[in-house]
Amino acid sequence: LRVGEMVKQSLSQIFLKGEAKVPNLETRKITVTEVRMSPDLKLAKAYVLPLGGKDVERTIYLLEEFSYLVRKALSKKIETKFLPKISFVEDQSFDYAEKMEKLIKQANK
């Protein structure tokens, strides 16, 4: 959990400061909501969401395509035995929470 949180904070800083020069992508508008690490700490699954939820598929595609640039910037931020390979996934927790809230409101009526 600690390594995941450290990677999450580092990725957020990298995106906010534009340290990973991903072509055709405004990284300042990307939110990193969670990072889940594999048990051996060699793989990181980063749950991201662009601001406003617009162009999610394009954003995920570009991040996956240029993940080596993000990983290079991450190598300057964290010191671990292994630098994790990062995969980016769309965070759907906000949609799920909104759906559950609607269901609860319908049940209360």
Main sheet characteristics: 3 strands, mixed
Number of helices: 4
**Proportion of β residues?**
15-25%
Helix content: 40-55%
As residue ranges, the low-confidence spans are: none
Q: What is the structural class?
A: alpha+beta
Could you describe the 3D structure shown?
This protein is 47% helix and 20% strand. It has 109 residues and is α+β, with helices and mostly antiparallel strands. The chain is globular and about 55 Å long. It has a three-stranded mixed beta sheet with strand order 1-2-3, covered by helices on one side. It contains four helices and three strands; from the N terminus they run αββααβα.
Could you give a short description of this structure?
The protein has 109 residues and is of the alpha+beta class.
Descriptive keywords:
109 residues, 4 helices, 3 strands, 3-stranded mixed sheet, alpha+beta
Give the secondary structure arrangement, pairings included.
Elements: H1 2-17, E1 30-37, E2 43-50, H2 56-65, H3 67-75, E3 85-90, H4 93-108
Parallel strand pairs: 2-3
Antiparallel strand pairs: 1-2
